[in-house]
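Reviewers of the previous submission asked for a worked example of the structure-prediction workflow described in the proposal, so we include one complete record here. The input consisted solely of the amino acid sequence. No template or homolog information was supplied to the procedure at any stage.
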Amino acid sequence: MVSAVDEHFLKEWRRIQNVAVSDEGPVEVRLRQVINPGLKVTDRCVSCHITMGAGEGSVRGAKLLAPHKPVFHDPAEYGCTVCHGGQGLATEKAESHGDVHFWPEPMLPARYSYAGCGTCHAPLNVPSREPYQRAVSAFERLDCYACHRVEGRGGTIRPDGGGMEGPDLSKAGLTGYDREWYPKHVEKMQKAPLKAWKMSFSTILDEDRALLDAYLATCVGASRLVEAKAMFHTAGCLGCHKVSGVGGDSGPDLSRAGYKDPGLTDFSHVNGPATLANWQAEHLRSPLSIVVGSQMPSLGMSDRDIEQLVLYTLSLRRRELPISYVPKDRMRALRFGEREFAVDGATVYGTFCAGCHGLAGSGVRSAGLASFPSIANPDLLERVSDEFLANTIRHGRPGRRMPAWGDMESGIRPEEIRAVVTYLRSLSGVTHKPESVPPRWVKADSASGKALFASACAGCHGAQGEGGEAPALNNQVLLASATDTYLVETIGRGRRGTVMQGFLDPSPARRTLAGTEIESVVAFIRTWEKKQP
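From that input alone, the workflow returned the following structure tokens.
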């Protein structure tokens, strides 16, 4: 009897429906569900969230009967679990939200709800954080909101006669937009009788139009997700991890990191709740504390940065979809090789390089890991050519964690490598002056250089030049790219901001080397260079 009463009268969904009313009166109390055979979805969430069902948007009564925020997809067609996760066939709150031990896909927390877009979509051409913020600011600074609505903001007539109902640009990045908009706007401003055109639009500089194009490319109806993805393209995560076949090999593939099963996740070193979001946050704060033996450096990010990276990581779901449901952005990324990141130098550097070399190229030192060198150091950039930098990116550093980005299918394309080199130059403003001597000019005694290297250099660079606290010198890509002048000047003058002090300068802590002795060390280093057949 108790079980029968509970099943037929006391279930939460029944109690919600009993107090719900529509414009026609009380709603029929029954089990409701959304079925989409194409997506293999059967969701009974609408038994509680009635207003998400087809034709029931006017239902009111309980707090959770609030209508869904405007989205591009009708929940009555797509269901709820495709975007939000959870267990669609369940009718109890804990089970339907996936908050049970056995269910591998719990519902996304409300503050990360935009992560659900990553189930199907892959926003393209997203810049790193600073270029993205400049693009967002340009749209607002130029008062585009006067006429255009983006995600519910803007596009209203103002009391002074400014503004108008222009096209909604919320999904311009998905559907496209008129690329000739600017000359047409100028013509309308000059000819249109409407006062709004004179008050709300004026000529725009080329650089600002480029920023507007960059912003519109990211308008996909999920600005919070795009902002989080911009942070991902700032933190250098693809330097070690792949997403959709692009990135490095030294870390786990993250393409479906948002589907990580909490039941198979080790929370023994995690403070706070045993949720996937909290695991990701704690792991980003201190990788080695959460995963024993982790080779991921601690990035020293703020709580806001971590929050955004957690959101983006949870969005990496990439569910297998019937071809008729695959959106254009994901199709363009997977089938046509379009980049999910913008290809300006700052973004490519942030996407692939910043995790190891630092946000500003200043290098990274993390406890328990080999240090990563500063590649924006003015002493380095003054002594090496653009070709040296490009070759280093293209061919990597064999034996070290620096992969051959130009030789990997999942790596960096030639035009992107050139963009990174230009960006590195911009960080310091230092250019390289062509050398007036041949690349190989040192003629010295390598035997005496060997003894000098052992006493003065091996402590940091390793007895065989394999690297340690300092970079590896016994490296074929370095030896092939570096000129003798570069090696002589680096040893003699050192490198500012690092422990590498110039050996020409007197020091009470170590011996000073004469110019001829430095050349002997270079001659010894050259003995590691493999002779080309």
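The mean pLDDT is 90. We consider this example representative of the routine output the project will generate in years two and three.
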